[in-house]
Amino acid sequence: MNILAPLIAAATATSLLAQTPPPPIPPAPAGLMAPDSPHTKTILDAILHAGPVMYVLLALSVFSVMLVITYLMTIRRGAVVSNGFMATADALLRKRDHLGLLAVSNRHGEAIARVVQKVLDFTTKNPNADFQQVREIAETEGTRVAANLNNRVTYLADIGMIAPLIGLLGTAIGIVKSFAALSGDLGAARYALLSTGVSEALINTCGGLAIGIPAMVFYAFFRGRVQRLISDLESAVTHILALLSVHHGEGRMERTPVLLEDEF
Known about the structure:
- With 264 residues, the chain is mainly α.
- 75% of the residues lie in helices and 0% in strands.
- The protein has 9 helices and no strands.
- The protein has helices at 4-19, 43-48, 53-74, 77-80, 83-94, 98-107, 111-125, 131-183, 189-247.
- The protein is rod-shaped and about 90 Å long.
- Residues 28-40 and 250-255 have low confidence and may be disordered.
């Protein structure tokens, strides 16, 4: 019996240990997750959570895209000087049918049609006016049309300058948040707040540049197109004035080109 007693005691202790549950395993920290864990935060989520400044940049991007589409459809040669209108104006002026050309100009929406309309409206109401006054009317209206074309494309230049500055504002806000996380006694959470602030700063910087650079590129493109259209308008106005000078008995006058003032 004395020999079997130690064996019975050992067997009893082994059975008791087997029935005791193991201690719980503490969960792993959030920053030590397995590298193959799925990422649920997308680029769009990062942009939308980059602070309130990002919503302003998104609005500017939508507005700039709308401007580019509008300028592609409206800033073209057919909207300033069309071959059809110039052929009609040439034929009617050679016939000295000013009233017929005035009616045609009222039906057309080209820039040259508005200039011709102003000129013919002045000549029909003032038949005794000299040709210098007619030229001044044409130059004034042509300058107004040229300034209107130039002013339209400056909206893209404004966006190109404002967007990086707004992005810089978002960058400063993100850096302030990062320093606030470092100065606070938040323990392990400070590193998450620090990375969030740095991410917000970089996203706002990239957003401002991503909007400003294309806006300036399209501004340069449309500015060049506007200058070519203004040159075509000057040539068309000079041709119209040369035909009108014949009616005013100044057919031998020097055909100096009409210079339209612009802002660039």
